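Notebook p. 47: complex prediction with fe (ii) ion.
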Amino acid sequence: MKIKYDKLDTFLEQGYCSLGEVVNQQKCKELLEFIKTTRDFERDLFLEKEDFYAHPQYTGVNPCPGRNILEGLDLSFIEQNTVLQSLLSELLGEEYSVVIKKVICGVPKKWIPDWVISEIDKLPVPNLGAFIKPDYRDITYFHGIDFHQDIIDYKNRPSDFITLYIYLDDVSEVDSPLFIIPGSHIFGATTFPHSLIPHGDNSNGWLYSDRRGKSKLLQRHILTGSVGSAWFWHSCLLHGTQPTKLSQSRISLRYIIERYKSSSSVLLDYVNSNIDGHLSLENTRIDLNEDGKSILRGNIINGNAKT
Ligand SMILES: O=C(O)CCC(=O)C(=O)O
Ligand SMILES: [Fe+2]
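Predicted complex, structure tokens below:
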């Protein structure tokens, strides 16, 4: 396969692309400062316990049209970035489009009330949205998240999109960096929680099985980087984070970007043609009940999954 941009080599082979500090750092810092002025992150995010238990609501608690802090902001420093535009055009076709963009906040334990800590204890997806005051649900809040594929949110949708992730903070190993598992897109979409068994002496090796007879030994990779660093990955690439051990947040931007539906074959189609598995699933996860509440405990990335 002949490609214009060498940077896309790793996407072809490993399902992700590391862009380095591609986004204007000053603009990222300004955006971060703005986000931080919109609320008291440390003391005012969470509902009162009584209010939550009066009407527990687990779905519809993430940013959506009409409730998204990024709506109305000028993000041309990202969306018109020429490097990003060139790479995304080659991968997805020139008329790619943004499905959703949002701010993600990794919340430190210190900010979370004790009753919420008990609710999310050992959950595979500790999305805090249910416990956040409605006005502040224009951001997604996590306290770590187990290894998953972003297609988890898109049942019955083909793998026709990528995730673009941009750090607005400097992120070192202790700031809850993202972990990705390069090459893990190769079995296509598999059901969450995934079959991942630690392998070897260090904590990098994982034996990944598609539960349909295929397995592969893969190495985890840690995405550390300074403000403005960006990556994008295939919708079936496994990734996650451990909760931050520090008392500060980690704020990032996350875009879902889809290939133009009717354009002729693009690079993503080629990558998909090499996938040995399903490109879409009817049921992407088995951890939630019909109210959207988690019914599973145990978290692979933190080493306390039930086996
Ligand atoms: O920022 C994080 O901690 C993980 C976010 C993530 O993987 C997602 O939103 O899909
Ligand atoms: Fe994700």
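Notes: Residues 25-37 form the longest helix (13 residues). The pocket of fe (ii) ion (ligand 2) is lined by residues 148, 150, 239 (CB under 6 Å).
Next step: compare against the earlier run before touching the bench.
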